[in-house]
Structure prediction request, 287 residues.
Amino acid sequence: MMAKKIYLCSISNVTSGACKEDCFYCTQSAKYNTNIEIYKNKSKEQVLEEAKQLAKFGASGFCLVTSGLGLDSKKCEYIATLSSFIKSALPKMLIIACCGIADRDSLKYLKENGVDSYNHNLETAESNFSNICTTHSFYDRLETCNNVLSVGLKLCSGGIYGIGESFEQRIEFLKTLKELNPHSSPINFYIPNDALPIKQPKISKDEALECIIMSREMLKDSILMLAGGREVVFENEQKKIFDYGIDAIVLGNYLTTSGDKPYKDLEMLQNYHLKIGHLIEDRQCVV
Ligand code: SF4
Prediction:
């Protein structure tokens, strides 16, 4: 049997923290005392260097992330500059932007400047959304996802589990995602943090696996990526996540938390007899 291919994505949090929104699960909200590093607009040279380092480990997706509600004109210009700079140096890197709520014109501009895919997570079911955020609505998020699709960018959209949602709300959430048919879909598991308003224990391995199985079942065509919470929830027992349908993982650090060192993840994939795939070469991700 041919070894399953796993895709490696990577993230650069190019603008971190000081967000005015109140998403209850997010350490980047200025409303909570989470003690994260706060900075604005990393230089394009620094971001390219990060991308090059991660590419050496086999990352074929690189996501430019900014904190804050959405993509205003300044932020759009900054991300476009980063994207075209990285794309010209690393043409085979799939560039993803994750900058919050965005209109069609801004998204078109990003696409013209090398962005291949836009990540905007619905996060949870519509019926649970007001329990995890009061400063913007589920519809704001849905509208951005539809804008992404309408300008021909690849949509990357998923959510976070373990934030107090019910089983039924998980199904409701996945049904909405299925309608969007995202090209890729990140799954995050909430990591308990005393500074955040969500007071839920860490999700168990079994429950987390159930979320993966349900996502696989509902999102048959999407690249299913396990992002935040992978190491914390599954620790040294990650084999099953791949057996049950995960296609991609995040290599290196997350937005405000550290992941395992890249070489450790590569060693793990090798031990599980999994091969590293390439998002553009294997999955025809060029838009
Ligand atoms: S998820 Fe985005 S919009 Fe919400 S608090 Fe975090 S950075 Fe701000």
